[in-house]
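Internal tracking record. Fields below are filled automatically when a chain is submitted to the structure queue. Please do not edit lines marked as system-generated. If the sequence contains nonstandard residues, flag them in the REMARKS field before resubmitting.
Queue: standard
Priority: normal
Entity type: single polypeptide chain
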Amino acid sequence: MGGFNNTEAATGDEKFKAFGLGFVGPNKGSHNPSTSGRHLYESGVWSRDASISARLGQVVWITVKNVNAIGTTIEITSNNGGRDAAILLPYLEAEFRFDNGGAEPLFWHFEVRTESDAFLVNYTIESTWVPGMEENR
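SYSTEM-GENERATED OUTPUT FOLLOWS
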């Protein structure tokens, strides 16, 4: 289930239309232990719609920060049933949480969409399990 966890950005159930924008490449993370149980999978910049497929843990956090001087929209859907959307004001951050039960790793696929023609966000993807960790079967 998706969850929105930011009091500074508005959320909504609007169905955002894709404008065929684009994607700027990721930086892959490591599986260094963290005290919060979060492990960095990747980070980078999105400038248009994007698709992400990965083997990750039971919980995935996607954090985005609008780095543009004007507001933007974002919608993230998951193959595991989660969907959430936000309107991001300039330079504000939002966190999306998706979770699903089962043995780690799980297959995740995310679709990132915007209806904004000025979409530029930094993103990080963190999870309870990332490639390089021992499988929890």
